[in-house]
Design goal:
By secondary structure, the chain is an alpha+beta fold. It is built from six helices and six strands. A hairpin with a 2-residue loop joins β3 and β4.
């Protein structure tokens, strides 16, 4: 554990992050009671996040330019998620950012053989590990935006929360019970104050 980076233990994982690293990436920027938090603030933090998500070997260094590309991809994904939820069309720049990440380390089809038998797997070009990590995140986001769970992608409705999650049912509006409880407590307080 890096002693210099703050740990936000109160931030519960949101539904979908365990399956989509791109969703976890978008959720690295959020707000808590004392202000905005960016878990990718600096090259060391970005490197640590990629390593913790199994996207980059620990021994591979990340430079400032590569860290900047990760931040750019995160913001483009946030905009693409918003466009998807609003049934709108994203900016050409946001699409270009995603597509550039996809093209930076194109995947090569491979035949893998496990105990379950043969199956196809696509492996990104590993010649540039940082580009490969971005490519995997971009592919993950493409699958999320176009796959069977795309309609479940939603932004938390709690004021001040900017995290995205996959709704488990249509009525769900908050990323975690913490956000839901916060909204309900605020409503109850406002109702008491109005009386």
């Amino acid at each position: 554990m890096d002693h210099d980076s703050p740990v936000y233990l109160h931030q519960l994982p949101v539904p979908g992050e365990e399956r989509y690293a791109s969703l976890a990436l978008v959720n690295t920027r959020f707000t808590v009671s004392h202000g905005p938090v960016d878990l990718l603030d600096g090259t060391k933090a970005a490197h640590l996040w990629l390593v913790r998500h199994g996207l980059l070997p620990d021994r591979v260094a990340l430079n400032g330019r590569q860290s900047g590309r990760l931040l750019g991809l995160r913001e483009a994904l946030r905009a693409l998620f918003q466009a998807r939820e609003a049934h709108g069309i994203p900016s050409a720049q946001d699409l270009a950012t995603l597509n550039a990440a996809l093209a930076a380390a194109p995947a090569t089809p491979r035949l893998a053989w496990t105990a379950d038998g043969p199956h196809r797997c696509d492996e990104p070009d590993a010649g540039n590990p940082a580009a490969a990590a971005l490519s995997v995140l971009a592919e993950d986001a493409t699958e999320l935006l176009t796959g069977s769970e795309a309609d479940q992608l939603t932004e938390c409705a709690a004021q001040g929360c900017a995290r995205w999650f996959l709704r488990s049912h249509g009525a769900r509006r908050w990323c975690t019970t913490k956000c839901g409880n916060r909204v309900r407590a605020a409503r109850a307080y406002a109702a008491r104050k109005a009386r």
